[in-house]
Write a structure and sequence with these properties.
4-stranded antiparallel sheet, 6-stranded mixed sheet, alpha/beta, 13 strands
Length: 272
């Protein structure tokens, strides 16, 4: 399958800190890639590189077959949806759910662009797709954490992107909300319209639909490949500098680290 993203020998710095060290990775169209690794591994910085942000010291980034340059980065970014970690929202915020989701369309047509019936329909479709149409007039400050994260996903979908970047989308959510968000992301991927890159440091949050895994540590890509091959005991133990045990129960992989117990059903046969 064709390469949608190609990163070659890229290093990135934030002030005096080198966040990425000479990384290279190709991501094919239609892949569901989970990027895992300890905190501070450079996972979020990898997303910023794909999204045209971050100070690149060296190397090249190509997205949609085009080199990411200042002159064309806005065009590239319009085709990429981004869902950040769930963050606290001021309960006094008067912005409605529908207004928040509409921001995804304004990112395409511009703040001064003409709003059309087509834009309205795309917002309605996004609300429906994530199951929050009933909340469209509710202030975002009155939502639960899980509901607010669904607004972020709907906003990204309203862009009609080809790539969606998820940066720790289940962080700071309760277990039920975490499960709901993961199932929603899997359902979105099942439509086969999107290439998804999903960052997490929690193994149990890796969606079952994940086809490929990128392992990161200290600003470097340690390994990448098929999800089943990467989610193995020796590889994970080296990644986290901690003994990991992997067992399979009813076809589902379970990961044990000390007193922690997590699970993931590995499947998919694509290459990163």
């Amino acid at each position: 399958m064709s390469k949608l993203i190609s990163i070659k020998n890229v290093s990135v710095s934030f002030r005096d800190h080198i966040a990425l060290h000479n990384i290279s990775i190709d991501i094919r169209k239609g892949a569901f890639v989970s990027v895992i690794g300890p905190n501070g591994a450079g996972k979020t910085t990898l997303l910023t590189v794909i999204n045209g942000l971050g100070r690149i010291l060296s190397g090249t980034v190509e997205v949609f077959g085009r080199k990411a340059r200042p002159l064309n980065i806005n065009k590239i970014r319009k085709r990429i949806g981004y869902v950040p970690q769930q963050m606290a929202v001021d309960p006094r915020s008067p912005v409605s759910v529908k207004e928040a989701v509409s921001i995804g369309r304004f990112g395409i047509i511009g703040l001064l662009g003409k709003w059309t019936d087509s834009d309205e329909q795309k917002v309605e479709n996004a609300l429906d797709k994530v199951g929050i149409s009933r909340l469209s007039e509710k202030p975002v400050g009155h939502l639960s954490g899980g509901e607010h994260q669904k607004v972020s996903i709907a906003r990204a979908l309203a862009q009609e992107p080809e790539i969606i970047l998820f940066d720790e989308p289940t962080s700071n959510l309760d277990p039920k909300a975490q499960n709901d968000i993961i199932k929603l992301i899997e359902r979105i991927y099942s439509e086969k319209k999107y290439t998804i890159i999903f960052v997490t440091h929690i193994l149990s949050h890796i969606p079952h639909s994940c086809t490929d895994v990128v392992l990161m540590k200290k600003g470097r890509i340690v390994k990448s490949g098929n999800a089943d091959d990467m989610l193995e005991q020796k590889i994970l133990s080296e990644l986290y500098d901690f003994p990991m045990q992997v067992s399979i129960v009813h076809g589902k992989k379970h990961f044990h680290a000390g007193h922690f117990h997590t699970g993931h059903s590995g499947r998919g046969d694509g290459n990163v």
